[in-house]
Queue: 3 jobs
Job 1
Amino acid sequence: MSVMSPNRVLAALVAVVVGLAAALVLLGVHDPRPRAAVGEVLDHPFQEDDLPHRGEVLLPWARLEVGASPATDELPDLLGAEANLRAPDGGSFVRVAVDLPEDFGIPLAAVAAPYVEEIEVVLRADGRDYVVDGPGGMVLDPNGPLGQGGSRWVAVAGHPEDLEVRVSVDGVTQTVDAADGSVSTDREPVVAALAALPTDDELVEADDTPCGPPRREDTTGLVVAYRPALACHVSLALRTPYVDGLGWAEDGREYAVVQLVRPRDLSFDSPRGEPAGRWSSDLTLTARLAGGTPLAPEVDVNSLSVGGFQDVDNPSQLVFDVAAGQPLGDLVLEVDAAAELGAPWVTDRRDVRLVWTVALQEVS
Amino acid sequence: MSYQIRQDWTGEDDPVPTGGRVRLFGRLVGPLVLVLVVAVLVLGVLVWWAAAGSGASRAAVGEQVPLQAAPYGRSVTVELPGSQVLLVAGAPVDRIGHGVLGRTESGSSRDEDLVAPDGGRLVPLSWQIRSTAGFGGNEDTEPIVVRLVAGDQRTELGSTVLTGTSASLDAFDAHDVVVGVAGEVGVEDLTIEVEYDGLVQTVDVASGEVDAGAARALYEPDRDFAAACGDDCTLAAAPSSAWRATFAPLTLSWVTLYPYDAALGWAEEGSAWAGLRLTAYSVDGAEDHAGDHRFVTGADGPLVVRLDGAEPVRTEGLDYEDFTGFRGRVVFEVPADAEPRELLVAQTAVLDGDRAPRTLPVSARIELSAR
């Protein structure tokens, strides 16, 4: 009875009660969920509300609404269930939103498909950069697939107050201040030029410009055998500050993108006074605009559209470098036809040269 | 205070306090002890209940419980021929709130949270197959198998065939699920395997890296090589031949290097398949220098196609048909980093009549360059 004195029993019971109460409290505050790593980019599976302060950013192929939420301690719950990840130690989460409005399309000029432009989206939080477009992150790719942009949650260090979203395309950056949606850029003129581009609809509605009759600059006397094969017209002349595959134009310069339908196959008859004969030929095109030759090889327009419609006229495209704001002037097309008589046993060869001078009408 | 020495039959002294305060304490000890014992029992139950999962149901090891939404985790895309597997893998947890749990088998919503197996963890996952095959769609019947590997436990999450079965209608559904695993598994112990036609690609969940093995080329840009003659390729007789073909066009696709062929399977690691489609039209006719003309009545022998001198490992079609000539697909095996330079295409036209020559061989050596 002396070992189990009332005092000791009471003290022991009180200690056990206090211990159990403490354990209960600790179980309540102890959060066993794993922590996101700083910089980890996470996707919430449901549509989220638009952020109140977004800024307009222009990609060469799309208008975007871009913003970032204030830092929060928790990811949104999943249908009422707690998120299965918690913030980094001492850190928080910021939502970066990049949305494409309904009329987002801007006509993109390119020299080849698939498109190669490099787009980066970075969250700058209190001076520290977090990549948002990396693996598992936001997708902004003119090649597709559908479902571009959206929101991503970024796990950040601390609870940053100063938040910016920086969107870069081939080195030109537009920065959105998350606090008020104001946008600044390191290359004002080219971004403004993107904003001034016509819409896709305006391009489709643009009239064709006939090339007119060609001038002959050879003395072979050969006669074009089938005149409809000389059909030539310019279907598009567009000034743009950006061409995918070439990048941004230099300050004070622009690209002139010309799409045209031109002769592909010409045959000729021998001149009057010579024995009758049919000449076949191989054609080579040389083009000049504003004193310069194209920046890239002539390319089949149908090969440039990623999943778009195919033009049955098989137009081709030429891209020139021109002075910004200056009239384009005339497009000069020289078609050299290396004509052969008697194929497969060629007995004579002559070079024919046809030149078209076309007054370009730009789409506005 | 006075003590009455009481002599009992044992002979021991037994002082009995008879003071007021001590007497009160003595009377309270019993009830106090009782209250505290009850408190211990109640708190003990509460602590046990909180630790064990407070009204939650416990997952079994290997059990896959569906979720109604994708959990948070690392996103990784695994590339396959003609499709991709989009994965989200979360770090292991002890509990998943009932709101995101899918309905029970009987169709009712759950009102209990889900906790990990005893001593184990729950791994939250999402996986979905997306087609990249474009307009023609997927035609393959090879199953795509996705597995979770946690330490030494392997759980098959699904085996999907994209075409040809009624289950293929659901092939592109998303699967959001939480898997019960045994042991104190951490995120560094998790890998996800994607198997296709014998090749297993492994995703390390902690780093997000994919060990693609022979499928590595699927993660790199396409390697295509175009013919220098473009749309104007033709076959011609040897320059010294007395007869020439009047018209013998050839159309060909790009030569594409790729790691998986539907008929041949995966190329060995370090190798690739190089494939192209072509049509070598029947030769139109033949003419000699004097202008004498003959017609072509067929072809003698198969179409010859060589890539940098090598024979194909597979040809499809390429059986001669009048007017069309030879049309089909040809596949070569090349080193994975090959830069194919030259394609040789040759056929032998059979000329009409009985006089010599009876045949006219025509060919083309086509220069290739990278796109």
Job 2
Amino acid sequence: MPASLISGLIVGPVTFLAPLALLGLIALPLIWWLLRVTPPSPKKQVFPPLRILQDVMTEEETPDSTPLWLLLFRLLLVAIIAVALARPILFQAEGVTDRPVAIVIDDGWDAAANWNTAMREAETRIADARRKNLDVLLVSSYSGTDALPAFGPAADAMRQVKAMRPAALPTNHTSLANQLETTDLSGSDTVWLSSGIDFGGAATLAAKLETAQGAKRLTPNSEVSPLIPGSAEETANGFRAVWHRVETNSLRTTDVTAHGRDGAVLARADITFSPGVDTTEAEFELPSELRSRVTALRASGSNTAGSVKLLDDSWGRPLIGILTPKADTGSPLLSEPFYAQTALAPFADIYTGSLDELLPLAPSIIIMPDAARTSDEALKDFVETGGLLIRFAGPRLAKRPDDLLPVLLREGGRELGGALTWQDPQHIATFAEDSPFFGLKIPGDITVQRQVMAQPGAQTDSRTWARLEDGSPIVTSSQQGFGRIVLFHVTAGPEWSNLPVGGLYVDMLRRLLTLARSTPGKLQSGTGDWAPERVLSGYGRLITPPIEVLPIANDAFETTVISAEHPPGLYRQGARRKALNTVSNPDALSPMADYDGIKTAPYGETKPVTLGGVLLGLALIMLAIDAILALLVSGRLSNLRPRRAAGLASALVMAAIAITPIDGHAQEAIPTSDALELHFAYVKTGDARLDRMSDAAMTGLVTQLNMRTTIEPVGVRGLDPETDSLLFYPFLYWPVARDAPSLSLRASTALNAFMAGGGTIIFDTQDAGDQAILGNRTHPGLARVTASLDIPRLGAVPDDHVLTKSFYLTQVYPGRWANGTVWVDRNANGSARDGVSSVIIGSNDWAAGWAMDGNGEFIQSLEQDIPRQREMAQRFGVNLAMYALAGNYKSDQVHAAALIERLGQPEREPENMGPSILLDEGDEP
Amino acid sequence: MTTASPNLNLRREAETLAAAYPALMAEAERVAAVVSQGVHGRRRPGQGETFWQYRNYHGSDSAHHIDWRRSARGDQIFVRENEWEAANTVYFWRDGAAGMDWRSSDKLPTKKDRASILCMSLASLLMRAGERCAVMNESRRPRSGRHGLERVTRRLAITEGAPENLRGDIPAHARVVIASDFLEGADVWRERLSRLSARPARGALIHIIDPAERAFPYKGRMQLRLPGNLQLPPLLVGRAERAQAEYQAKFAAHVDSIAQIARRLDWPLITHETDKSANTAMTALYAAIAGANA
């Protein structure tokens, strides 16, 4: 009895693990008594007219005690705590049995995802059997000993179960059935902790198990059913992997990760299986450099070897380098590499450049058009060490053959179908069987006008892959060292033949790609065994191979079926690496059916339910309620109310503030009268100091223009491009801080429309003075702001730009500083904008130069980089306004004197020449 | 400093309150018996220090009333008459019991503070009109003028307000202003006031009530006790809200009985609740005293 008290007390389906805690229930009467005698403490209050009150109630009505219902409530609370501390566990009657139990455990990779649940199930059942002193038989594919399984003490089985791990191999149900061949299962219960995946032998096992008195198969739900990778193939901007699943009952969404050699996640893609669907595709977008570094694909949330796809050397798009001539200035359609590049782009990653640039990329193929011909030693090395060189003929090769050729060439080319030739252009003959192009369909309209000719001979014949109809070789190839050279006897472009503009060209080049699937140096094949490098554990982790793993013979690798000697993993032969994947044919897997005589149930039903947590939670809630009840009984609940109401009210007020749209700014409508009177505008940055300066600068500029010119602006507007209309303003002055945020879609649309409609934006980074520190680094604010704007190509303001003469003649653009470069549209008479640059970008802090306060006094001091900087800043401002308003009008005026002279009129004094007088003003001393 | 500051605050408040009123001149009903001479003339010949008129000597005049200097200028004999000048003396008593120093909520002033403010305002008004004021049995003598106001208001602010002071020696026909919550019971106060009235003295009563005393807004289980020393054991009330109606009736009866005493004595009674503005009470007080003097 005491022993059973310590190990557990069983009351119906509930077991108490710490039954001694139930002694706490003895305390209940004590609590009853305490609660009865201790009334809730009264609220104390000083009350001067107590005498009057005393007349009203001379005696306390009754000695106030805890009300009965509260008493019961509290007793229940304490009882629940006492029971909870006794750690009650609820066993469902279903899992409880009184017969010996045979437990069959699927322990292949298929069970790994569900392993913890299965183990908990097994342990629960064994623990149950141990409590009832029943024998247990444990059968598994990979964890058992060689001895035939037999019923034994539950404690042994428990030890065995604790040591079990899933293998990286499929569960062998047939061998399980064989193990049980001689065992008599009648008179016992069998539980089959299945993985739900049938590798072909499940029915055999089921037939054996159903001989038991009670047979049951547990099956995992589809959420933990393993996801199985199928084929993976590269696409133009990434790759695509097919994923399968066996259990198709539910919708399942997860993601697939692509891992690099060190296990780092390089990419992630979502996959979704609709209910009833067993195949889906994961699309990865990954640049080619990263793509070739992918070594494994894994499905997240399915940690089993079956959900890992290992990728080996055959993975990766070939990297192709195209040699380009040094100065290839021709138009693209005429340049030779263009055709090869276009043809191969969908199937390979292509880099162009000189040999020095290409070789460090370790391309597997180098394409050398004639114009970029070179016989560099490095290129020879490339071919010798296993590279594939595809050459195209051309005038240079025709003139002087070199030694990187598959066949000997005759000097000079052969011209067909020209003005001075007899022969017609030749068609390409059908490809021979030993040619890699064999089977390609040859369109009839492919003709060759010129070609380089190979020296005839047996060697040439054997090295020819394609011929013209007259038998002359058009594609030849030969091994050189470990590598290979392929020569097209025509140009890469359409000069010599129309082959490059046809579909055949694409197909031929594709066939050539397969010749060089991997990086050079690994092309050489060996004959040695494939030694295991890293193998997969059942959970899908790459581990050091255990001692029993054996190498695989070279010629047997393709036919190897995974086994304990050859587990899935990466195998290595010299520098080459091959992957042996867990699942070679996902379509061969099927879900387990319902077998006769075996009940099917999901996992987790016999899980003991620990009630302690629930009860303690309940007790805590009751405790909270009790606090409120205590307040209620002592009459103090109302004290909470006003505060709570105030809290509620303040919360409501806060919420109201939060949801009230702050639209005061947005509704600040720009009056349409701006269309009638000229206003200058600046962009509000949100930085109050910057905005004040911009406002003052525009005010100053308006003042100066009114004083000096016939442009008479009336006012200044600060605008937010996101909300305000930009229609009426000739230009926007925009001081850009380094921390300026990027524009919203609305703002950038509005600003692009503004620029397209002829507006000019003047960006001022106001940091020319900091250039010494900042150097020529990108201005982060400006980069963000202009990222979504249509900024034309920019150039520094040329000396003859209209900006230099639109009113004053000036060559400086000073603000606070005078030496910052000013950038304008490089194309001075571009587009329909009347030659006005859509942006002017500078860093001179023009606002400082222009800014005036209300009294017409300048409010900023300038750096005095140049003499009379203030005046020059004003002049630049005037020029800028003139430029924005009048466009290139003034660019004609420089010729005014010449035009007047041409009209035959005597040249007049400058002061009578209208606008040109203004041109001279800038030259005043 | 710290002890003086609440007094200063009270005084400032009282002065502000008093500033809103025209100078109040307390009429003395019976002038002849008033011994002390005041400052304001009655536009009648009488006792005073300011010259009023010369008149011919009657036989009934005492010889020492003859103004010899004036008479020596001519043949007639003149008697010098001074203007009749009179001032009333008002005695204040502000209850200082522990129950007065209580308020039901932080937002209200204590009854004692409110009583002090009312008394000080009245004193300020009276002294501005030239009356003389004193705190009953605590001031050594009635005072007037700016300096007197300082002393009286200070005394009013710190007065213990012991009930014994009500027995203090005051001249007959003086005026008495009593501010209290009258919670010691109607009988006690009837006795006290009768004695004062028999002095004879006339006066006004200010009944200060905290709103909670009238409404009894308490609920639930309460332990109620008297402020100050524990002369009475705390009262445990199981459900305070049950006693509310009965208590309110009882309290109303108490207020009534105080009013009845005042009516019987023909003293004006101003009932003031501390959540009301002090100005309201001052208006009533003003009307009451002015009415009594009319």
Job 3
Amino acid sequence: MRIAICIIPLISIASDLWAADAPHRLCTPEHLALSSNGGLLYVSCSDADEVLAIDTASHNVRWSIRAGRRPMGIAVDHRSGYIYVANSWDDSVSEIDPSGPRQLRKIPVGWEPHGVVLDDRHNVIYTANRLSGTVSAIDLKSGLLAHELTVGPGTSYVFRSPGSRWLYATKIYPDPHEFGAPPRNSLAVVDTLTQTIHHTHSLPDSGAMFLGSVADGLVVAPVVRPKNLLPVGKADQGSMFVNGIAILREGTREGLVLPLDSPGGGTAQPFQTVFHKPTGRIFVSASGTDEVAVVDVRRLVRETRSVRSASLSDDLSLANRYIQWRIPAGRQPRAMAVGVKFLYVANRLDDTISVIDIAVLRERAFIRLTPERPIPPARRGERHFHDASFSRGRQFSCSSCHIDGLSDGLTWDLAPDGFGLDYVATPTMETLSGSAPYKWNGSVPTLEFECGTLAEKYFFRSEGFRGTVLDDVVAFLKSIPPRPNRHRPSDGNLTRIQLRGKLLFERKTDNNGRPILTTLQCPTCHFGPALTDKKRQDVGTRSSRDRSSFFDNPALINLAYKVTYLHDGSAESLHALWLKHNPDDLHGVTSDLTLPDIDALVEYLKTL
Amino acid sequence: MNRKWNCLVFMASLLMASGAVSLANQDVGFLFTSAPRFEPSAWSQGGARFPRGSVVYRAERGTAKPLVPELLTSADPFISFDGRRVLVSGRLPGGDRDQIWEVSLENGRIRLVTSGGGDCVRPLYLPDGRIAYTRVDRGGTAIEVTGEGPGPTRITYTPDRHITADILNDGRILFEIALSSGDGHRRRVMTVFPDGSGVASLGGAKERPWLEPVQAADGSVVFLDRKRAVNLLDLRTEAVRRLPGLPGLVFGPFASLTENRAFVSMLVAGRGQAKLFYWDGQSAEPVELQQPTGAWAVQPMPLIPRLRPKDHPSSLLPNRKEALVLFYPVDSRDHRSKAARVRAWTWEPSSGVSQLGVLPLQPDGSLYAAVDPDRPLRFEVLDASGRTIQRQEHWIWFRPGEQRICVGCDVGTNVAPINRLPMALQSGRPSRFRDDDVPTGKSVIPR
């Protein structure tokens, strides 16, 4: 039986927040952590910019405290009881004394920290920083950066086994790779003794990796295996994604990926694994299929020792051998925390926590983090956006490619008419508003047409978003705010090199004093709030796989955060745009620019 | 079809069927088909399932009466998703063909859905309100969809006999085929989208003969094995388990009410005809319902709304006349060193089986081809000497504008394709099957 326990806010901040006439405020629980004695469950709420502490006995909120902007990962120092919260939009970690509660310090880290973990032996906190692609190692005593370790674009999660020398960092984007090559991702193994990257463990045919865990020398992390090099003409049988878990032996370079999907149904968007040692189980949250898969570690290990072949990772018949059970959860279950008797699951888009009795593998109670009220359209749309039940075989949702509303860093054969044509890089969703028309060729006038008719025909292959559901999805997409641009100086004054780049962007004559045709001047196509004229243009970027030379002039907002550039993702960086992909000066005049000029232009583009 | 049917005599033998099955403290009425004789597999050899006619009854609140008194014969009841209308196949007195009729459960008003030659049987509602059914005539069988445009749209193109079975929750039409290469006893369960695209074997059903499939309330597919025992196929895992506690030969379709409750038609020892039972998985024995003596009682259909399946958005490209097919065998690693070509066969009523042509496979086993739509096709993989390595068991077809990825003929669905750029796509242009350059090695010509 599902028992609803509404939180009675005990402190005035929360009371104000939830007052009847207050605007609807969502919590959106992102990460969970248990206090040392298991008596409190800490919850980071990204939409409320706060951290809650929930009494695990009464399921009431003990306290809440404001953190930085968009708090994500939480780590607990079991010696002091302090908690550390990664503020993804503040580029900081809040140190919070729960006895107050009060925030003691805000420690600066890399750009957009998501994961945070504590090495209490060496008094270091590590954060995984998505935008800077690094792991920050912060000396806890001084609060200063000790080391900034480069892992790669999209570095988002860190985890380790308590007491272990090794720490693991995962990325949501694959390693940079040539167009047409199968993507691979790598897991960085950080030596906490030296605070250096000891080695990286490469996983072939792998896309996004998420938050893993370690126990008994086994490293287990969720991973998706995209099939982006095959035409998107078939949605079932793992033809677009195989959702799986990477399994590595700690201290070795051995490892493989095993699927979580079954032949007729996916375990979409696995987000986190947690071990429960007493029962020998791994719990895997499947945020696209709203469930928690229960994996028997003994059987899993048996599979890893069986005859290995190239097809093991794609053999969908395997999952039933080690998945013992699937526990239904709320909407978009992602973060988890495990105690002795209970598993806590944060249902991100329900604003609830499922309390699962590990002995019977059933939800015993659920904790509401916000009062029951009508759900705003954008939140309803966000639920649909992450819901894999719209796709045939429940193997993927919109967010399988648009991870967290962003991109997967991959190029796909969408097969709108014929196979092997018009390969397209996954665009980010954070700059959609005001940038119509859509698609790489600007052929789609509205988001309604793209997310409704086209998505169900060519992606889901099943009844997709229609009617009010479609309206909600579009409302969500239009509500996605662009992330703060870290390249833009906070005082609004561009640096010298950025100003130099701005002049180059706006120039009307080249370095030799010759006038540049109006059609080749950057602001001719890139102007207005979204920095696009919303037209199509031939800028000489057609490849042999494209049916047309004309492509949509893209918006340039947060250009720096894109994983790849050009319609097909063939440019790996902004520099490559000008140095490799504009030989005939059709995409603006750049052949006269010196390398320092290109540097300056790129620095300016990053501020947009 | 020759039917000797004395409706009055049979009506007189009908006792009141009880509608006293209680579900969630409410009596659940049901429909069933009553017939003096029932040949469930006769369709697979061109025969009639109800050779002496049949009547669909509505059993409710302790009484049972013909659902459509206007019809001389009726069968195959299928309730609408809102529980307000029923489709049946049947004919008026004096009629010589079965057609599909729609009956209002509220006022009994009937509407003729189909017309034309042949018998129309086994109707199904589609999620968008259209109706699919099987048309049986001298030329064979075809599944048609009506309700859009001036006439029905044919969606199956194969010389095999087939019959509609159910609509799955994901929008696929479930149907059975009796392979034309055999004597009608080799049967398979297939699925197809309502636009006729995507025809495929039901996952896991490739090797085994599964009879009279239908989707159960819990989403699994219920089917009968050769011994007429009930089995459940979990569509997610493709695991099959036999349902215990049914002590007789079961005749489909199995009509589930909830996960553990169903109406079932069963022939128990010492009885001459199958009777209707209410089965509750919690109790030891199925409970026999009051029903006619001397007649078969089959095709139970609860009078409750059912889940509306998902609609299938057709992705047929309107401007393409041919179909595009990418062969990208997922499990051909063993074959890859040997597989060299693919041969295509077709079939026409006038000339029978003929070879359509042969195309070479790329070194990675891929092949990209444009094929003519709406005709039976069968593929086989050949080695360099022309010998058949792998052969498709049954005919398939593609619709105009269909873009299909075939991951191997009759292979299991458990292996996802490997993520590599298929070599066959590098040119961007599809090939066409040609009947020159035919290898001379030994090949099995499909019948």
